[in-house]
């Protein structure tokens, strides 16, 4: 199986291609002896009609000055030289390449390649490349008859929204672009800088954010394919008729063909269309202007680049096990080098060791002659649409991956037309190149994995078929594991720890061994992948699962009101995107990047985010929404709950998930039904109004969203923790005034909704007398303990005895301990569904108001670190009355997951009795040699705990304690350690 360089034109096409190539070869051979200069190196011309100088003279000029003369127009012809061309021809031609012969003459005279734009024949904007005006009517321009038809299918109304957004995003004036570019290079940042406080910041930020453009385009094309498929009906593919002339297939029987197609150095290829003089050179697309601007970047006097980058590197190494990123960061130590990233670099640059994503400063060290070109977001969009529209003429079995990449199922097409698959691929690539002026590569295999592998072989500007009779094991063997789908830095680290780094390594071990490292599901997939097997189907109708808006540049605030204003803008932005996607959300997540305590205040990348801790907080809604007021008010509430000082914020994002289609008729709400039943059952319990009513929410909170706490301990925890937090905050603020900010009472902004540290009198008033008394007693005691803490006496014992002890797990065995019966959960009666719903119900209660686990955990989080061991002692202390569950071991019961689920989701702090019980049951499993059951139990338990709030430290401690105990027992009884794949993710209590 050799690389298929065949152009795919089959019998008739092959002749012309051969002829063209021969003429080119003759031309090249003839030119050498007469070569005077290499002025036109990398440039090819085709002369169309009469010109002055004549075609012969132009040919001679090219010959002696290193250029190429094409006797026929080729897709890769750089320019078509002409005086004018009849309209009828123009319609099928790429106008961006038509220039006057005078350009050749002037280049020769000036002895350098001049900008060709002033010589363009067919454009109404002589100084730039002709632009495709999406959404603009044909009559808008006098020259429209001469302009190429936009390659966009205009029937698509939703797409118009995406396009409009993109169009606005790329319509930045040059001055504005310059302003943003200067942000990273200005020597006096405070004068020119635009920060998130400026009202126009967000618009400006998104205009210039490449990641925003890539993400928007990628999501847009997934939606585009869906809509093309829905609009397709029974129209068929008339363009398939053109393919009937292709080489016939020699394959007998049905063989699966999946194609992966990807543009070559996409951003660079698009950019080179307006910079042909740079073809063949090392080129990179980046915000940095390159040259001295990239090697002599002014840095804030208080920024400590080395310290900051070392912190970054350590985080990459220790948390993500990503040495590549760590090395990249360390490469940026040089004080004056630009930290702008290279979005894409040409293959000539790659030969010098430059890679996409590298810092410009570092790249310039490797290749000082590297040329940098700016972004052309409009161009990327235009080419991407042409790519998708070209493929969709032949088939709609397309899985959009990103703006420059897709998978295409070719099996039906090839069967239908009985053509050679690679002949089709060649034809398609030629068509894309001819229409866009940009090369692409394609790989074909019997599944997605192999198709993508084949593309790697094909690049640049080629195509490759991984034959069905190829020895796949041998082919896959050298492939590094991290290049397989789903293998990220942390999984590849885990694998490398047990000596597995390539597919060949995995091929040599058993599946069981791999399962003990990764767990069943991941191991099975990886095992198959390493053998070239990939069972993933192509996903044609990818529904949007998440919509987000995030800014991690320019985030500098000093007052809560500024944060609030910004959140309102971001809320509006994310809601617009949600509406454009025709979706509604049920889950609102606020992601905040906060300067890490050890990170310098001034970041070395001006207005960048520097080293941060990431905090995520979410609200789960009862009903889906696309109302900007609802979304914004939840976001404000979440920010308020985070208690973060405005000046420490470095990045803010809103992520909307659990999306529902606006058009889908809602099914009966099972949860609502369940809540009603629970409420009925708990008529005797106290009812408490939700603590917070978002100030900005114009709509009243619906009756059913008001919270009914399950147990008095929740209310107690909430109230006592508020007091505790206040006291501890005061304590901390004294030592470290800029952190542990409390939005409450800090400013007269509308973020303020409660007075600091005080029990809400309204809630207090609604409590039954006995609880109120307990709360007030507890408050006094807590404050007294805090004072003791200040004087250095450990309050741990007292605190621990006051932490509400939930009922032991043993109670969970009694059906009456749950507020739910199976009948409450109609129509589903499966136990898994019950467990799921219970978990959701519990979570929902927390989100909607109680948040008891959050409050207690916050409270524990605030405790001085030295108290953690005491807390662990408490959790793991031997309990005299360990509930006696002899046989059968509940961890061997079918529904053990339900029990664990109930235990973990319902309790803020694991009760010692329960922890003891778990230890006892697990010991029995160790003794009975039930390793896979221990593995499954621990994995499930760990996942449950990790899915709790990140600061559920008592649970983290309990789990880690359990795990280390198991290892001890393993060594003692079995003589070896178990390998647990799940670990607790908490940087506060583990480390
Ligand atoms: N982290 C990223 C990933 C991608 N891109 C942009 C620039 C790329 O040109 C384009 C397409 O990404 P590819 O991974 O396909 O990379 P290229 O097309 O540049 O190179 P290749 O020829 O390897 O496909 O997306 C980016 O700016 N930042
Ligand atoms: Mg690409």
UniProtKB/TrEMBL annotation:
The keyword Metal-binding applies. Keywords: DNA damage, DNA repair, DNA synthesis, DNA-binding, Magnesium, Metal-binding, Nucleotidyltransferase, Nucleus, Transferase. Its cofactor is Mg(2+). Pfam families: BRCT_2, IMS, IMS_C, IMS_HHH_1, REV1_C, UBM. Residues 181-193 have a biased composition (Polar residues). Signal peptide: none annotated. It is an enzyme of class 2 (transferase). Residues 130-157, 173-193 are annotated as: Disordered. Deoxycytidyl transferase involved in DNA repair. Transfers a dCMP residue from dCTP to the 3'-end of a DNA primer in a template-dependent reaction. May assist in the first step in the bypass of abasic lesions by the insertion of a nucleotide opposite the lesion. Required for normal induction of mutations by physical and chemical agents. This is DNA repair protein REV1. It comes from Drosophila ananassae. The lineage of its organism: Eukaryota, Metazoa, Ecdysozoa, Arthropoda, Hexapoda.
